[in-house]
């Protein structure tokens, strides 16, 4: 399972992103962890004309499909962002159904298949913010569609008829469906520690789109930045990349063992050994080079802490700088989360 629904919910609670809409994220819940979903919710809040008719707004319909909690919780959060916190009487059963115009955009005249959903969902997000293109996490898109398909009872055909799809928006909060999952979701490892740091995912997702991400990841800037910043460790990084890569490229590769991969060949800075400042510049520089609407680290402290983990594992706490060879060894042989900072750092 990619990121379990309860895990996603936990992310909402620990979400660190700030939000420019009417109400702050702390009062109304953080933005969704997934970049595409976050873009859609922001667009929904900024463009919704009538809070009592959210399903006339395409961004709101899309945002509801990627929200990890039940529809009524989505509506409560939406109302909070638009009207402020307080007692909320928006409930799905009382709202107008999804408009024909929006439905036809999703389905293109037929029933709703995964491909139709994916094209529509990503299209709405890109219309709201073209900068999200490289950050679209295909595993999340599948994870959005799978429970809807299951609730409507069409796992077998993979295509949801119109009225049943509309029912999902109206009743899924209060009525159970025949199944909770159809099993479309690729078996991606839970990103247990990284979830609070969306920038690590905004490095991981573009990495998974690289053709040689599984054969030679440490020759690719964005993959190296993703691996070195992955709080869960290199094995978890490789698992998460493989899982997405297989969906993107239609392959069935197993996760490569890090110690069989070619060594690090990306230069973190012009000269090795690399300093903390080199690592910070490399991380921010790589995020910037994506030319995408990335989530920046909330504070540079998380990058500094990660460098301290790296120093401790490589045994360079005393100098504070790491030679390229030893950084390469970390990528190949550290495997699990690092977990220990230098004794002299806070
Ligand atoms: C929601 O609450 C407002 C204010 O209390 C009220 O005016 C409105 O009629 C309520 N709407 C519904 C659908 O109950
Ligand atoms: C939509 O799905 C229903 C139920 O499976 C099926 O009877 C109908 O033929 C489908 N319509 C189209 C256009 O595929
Ligand atoms: C992918 O590989 C696994 C194990 O190597 C196998 O069980 C599974 O059936 C394969 N899936 C496809 C679609 O080939
Ligand atoms: C750094 O790597 C070199 C070459 O593999 C190795 O000889 C050395 O012991 C490593 N340094 C530390 C502090 O582990």
From TrEMBL:
Keywords: Signal. Residues 1-22 form the signal peptide. The keyword Signal applies. It comes from the Eukaryota. This is Uncharacterized protein. The lineage of its organism: Eukaryota, Fungi, Dikarya, Basidiomycota, Agaricomycotina.
């Amino acid at each position: 399972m990619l990121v379990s629904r309860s895990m996603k919910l936990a992310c909402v609670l620990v979400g660190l992103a700030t939000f420019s809409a009417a109400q702050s994220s702390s009062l109304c819940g953080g933005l969704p962890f997934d970049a595409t979903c976050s873009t859609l919710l922001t667009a929904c809040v900024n463009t919704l004309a009538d809070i009592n008719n959210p399903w006339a707004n395409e961004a709101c319909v899309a945002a509801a499909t990627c929200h990890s909690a039940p529809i009524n919780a989505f509506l409560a959060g939406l109302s909070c962002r638009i009207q402020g916190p307080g007692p909320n009487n928006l409930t799905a059963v009382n709202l107008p159904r999804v408009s024909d115009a929006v439905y036809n955009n999703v389905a293109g005249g037929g029933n709703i298949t995964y491909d139709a959903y994916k094209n529509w969902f990503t299209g709405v997000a890109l219309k709201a913010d073209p900068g999200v293109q490289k950050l679209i996490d295909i595993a999340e898109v599948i994870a959005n569609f799978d429970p809807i398909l299951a609730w409507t009872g069409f796992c077998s055909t993979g295509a949801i008829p119109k009225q049943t799809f509309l029912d999902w928006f109206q009743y899924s909060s209060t009525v159970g469906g025949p199944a909770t999952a159809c099993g479309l979701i690729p078996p991606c490892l839970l990103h247990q520690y990284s979830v609070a740091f969306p920038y690590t995912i905004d490095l991981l997702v573009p990495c998974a789109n690289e053709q040689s991400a599984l054969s030679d990841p440490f020759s690719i800037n964005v993959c190296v930045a993703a691996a070195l910043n992955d709080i869960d460790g290199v094995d978890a990084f490789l698992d998460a990349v493989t899982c997405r890569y297989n969906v993107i490229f239609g392959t069935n590769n197993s996760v490569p063992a890090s110690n069989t991969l070619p060594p690090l060949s990306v230069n973190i800075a012009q000269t090795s050994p690399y300093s903390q400042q080199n690592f910070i510049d490399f991380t921010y520089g790589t995020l910037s080079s994506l030319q995408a609407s990335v989530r920046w680290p909330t504070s540079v402290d998380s990058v500094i802490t990660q460098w301290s983990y790296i120093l401790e594992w490589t045994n360079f706490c005393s100098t504070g700088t790491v030679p390229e060879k030893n950084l390469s060894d970390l990528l190949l042989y550290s495997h699990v989360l690092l977990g220990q900072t230098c004794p002299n750092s806070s």
